[in-house]
Amino acid sequence: MFFADFMPIVIFVVAVILLIIFFRFFPIGLWLSALASGVHISIGTLVGMRIRRIQPQRLVYPLIKATKAGLSLTISKLETHYLAGGNVDRVINALIAAQRANIEMAFEKACAIDLAGRDVFQAVQMSVTPKVIETPVVAAIAKDGIELRAKARVTVRTNIERLVGGAGEETVIARVGEGIVTTVGSSESHKAVLENPDLISRTVLQKGLDAGTAYEILSIDIADVDVGRNVGAQLQMDQAEADRRIAQAKAEERRAMAVAHEQEMKAAVQEMRAKVVEAEAEVPKAMAAALRDGKLGVLDYYQMKNTIADTEMREGIAKASNPQNTDSKQ
Questions:
Q1: Which of 217, 220, 230, 228 is nearest to 197 (CA)?
Q2: Which DSSP symbol is given to 88?
Q3: What is the pLDDT tens value at each position of the chain, 330 positions in all?
Q4: How far is CA 202 from CA 180, 193, 224, 246, in A?
């Protein structure tokens, strides 16, 4: 009796669960939307997507959009691209934009661009509306030593055929900067570049800088050219300072050698004086030996002393009477 009272409630709960499971694996509303839009997809295909853990609306709505735009695509192709990790909605938007702009683009090409990591829809938009890339300030030095700072605006358009495997914006900016440095560096004077800034544009465009890139360069416009430092004069000043230091070092070396030579001469004079003092010290000994041996008499000794004293007196008088010669000799 108790079980009979709760039987309707159990049946209702089971029915609700079955309906939830049914509508979870059988998206009837999505199937009706596709059918009303002229896209024929079987219920079995939608159930298979659920089993493969694919959200059917991520494929069905882009397919409806493509069908309305006149594109002939199948749900199998969209599912393959989705399972590969691609963005199906962005690919469909790119194909529709390309069709409206009369740009020939196959579905496989759009999928390849999308899987390569590039925004295929943005690429189609850049093919229709070119993009302006502004380079950073590039510093270059002319042959006269004056530094110029130039900034350029590069107008590019996407090259669909080279979008897969082609270089990006960074390569274009680097090549334009290289062209600016080459043009300014080969100019005889910075005034020639200031008078004709389009010289940079012509030289850069002639180099074919868009080769191997995903873009086609339409124009290169020099936005601004400023005069920077006088690098040539600065280098000359640095060289003169280096030469001065080298000359100063050599002069210090010569002075040190002269001081060393003077010290050697003083040492030699001191050595000679020491030898003279040593020799003078031997004189009294020799005279004593001569007096002892009888080779020298007392009168001879006093006569020699008188002679020495007379000589010293004459030298003193001569110095007192002619001090200029004495100073010059000193």
A1: 220
A2: H
A3: 445 555 666 666 666 665 566 556 566 767 777 777 777 877 777 777 777 777 888 888 888 888 888 888 888 888 888 888 888 889 999 999 888 888 888 888 889 888 888 888 888 888 888 888 888 888 888 888 888 888 888 888 888 888 777 788 888 888 888 888 888 888 887 787 777 777 777 877 777 777 778 888 888 888 788 887 776 667 777 788 888 888 888 888 888 888 888 888 888 888 888 887 777 777 777 777 777 777 666 676 677 777 878 887 887 888 777 665 545 444
A4: 10, 12, 16, 46
